[in-house]
């Protein structure tokens, strides 16, 4: 994963981090609801959005409902740094600013 992967932080902790950042900032974390899944947390003009990465039967990753399948989460992230997100409410957003893990 990349420096934008924060592991097991909660949705509230993700929002606290993103509240310090500008629109288009994002991070990836473990899903709170299912341990083996991952979520993308994003700062949008409306506030915060949380989207789950879904795994397909052939172990590819999809973001939201309308994304193309990718082999890995870093590939999904890389793609949507240049393309608008295929997500309702974030149609004009791409992943602009990774919120990196601050190592002490």
Descriptors:
five-stranded mixed sheet, SHC Adaptor Protein, alpha+beta, 17% helix, 104 residues
Short structural description:
This protein has 104 residues and is of the alpha+beta class.
Task: Detail the topology: elements first, then pairings.
Elements: H1 11-18, E1 25-30, E2 38-44, E3 47-55, E4 61-63, H2 73-82, E5 97-98
Parallel strand pairs: 1-5
Antiparallel strand pairs: 1-2, 2-3, 3-4
Global shape: globular
Largest sheet: 5 strands, mixed
CATH architecture: 2-Layer Sandwich
What order do the helices and strands follow? HEEEEHE
CATH superfamily: SH2 domain
Number of domains: 1
What is the percent of helical residues?
Answer: 10-25%
* Spatial gap, N to C terminus: 19 Å
Structural class: alpha+beta
CATH topology label = SHC Adaptor Protein
CATH first level? Alpha Beta
Taking all Cα atoms into account, the compactness measure Rg is 13 Å
Ranges where pLDDT stays below 50 over 5 or more residues in a row are: none
Strand order in the sheet with the most strands:
4-3-2-1-5
- Mean pLDDT equals 90
* Tally of DSSP helical segments: 2
């Amino acid at each position: 994963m990349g420096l934008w992967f924060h592991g097991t932080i909660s949705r509230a902790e993700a929002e606290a981090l993103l509240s310090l950042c500008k629109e288009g900032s994002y991070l990836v974390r473990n899903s709170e609801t299912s341990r083996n899944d991952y979520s993308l947390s994003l700062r949008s003009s409306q506030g915060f959005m949380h989207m789950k990465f879904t795994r397909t039967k052939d172990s590819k990753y999809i973001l939201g409902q309308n994304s193309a399948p990718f082999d890995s989460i870093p590939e999904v992230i890389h793609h949507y740094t240049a393309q608008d997100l295929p997500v309702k409410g974030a149609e004009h957003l791409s992943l602009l600013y990774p919120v990196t893990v601050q190592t002490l």
